[in-house]
Sequence to fold (161 residues):
Amino acid sequence: MRKKVFGLFALLVLALGAAAPALAVQPDEILADARLEQRARKISAGLRCLVCQNQSIDDSDATLAKDLRVLVREHLQAGDSDEQIRAFLVARYGNFILLKPPFAWDTAMLWLSPFVLLALGGAAMVGYSRSKRTEKPAAPLSVDESEKLKALLGDQPGGQA
Fold:
């Protein structure tokens, strides 16, 4: 029984490991200098794939992502700093290339829209709850109306007189 449970556990661990995202960096892209390669991975992890748009260039198999990874490594080998490489790519592609764009005038809507939507939703909920609270309850029936209602219900099948 223990062997069976252990086998199932091992199979589960392997399945979860296979489901983890694999890096798309090809062996021919990897730099010989481990420090430069580590810097390249760090930079690539913060850059958006312009084709996939929701992946870093480190995770994307797109041709453009590969070209950008190679470009980052070329700049690193040329002696550029991490900030110089990011600045070069932002100058070329705009802030969209960054997975975490800075707060600026051109990205203000991107950063503020969740808060605006949350505020609008909250205002709508408050307005709705106030409108429910201010509704007047129905006035009770007058004696004459009660008599008419009893007469109508008495004429229908299942009604009581």
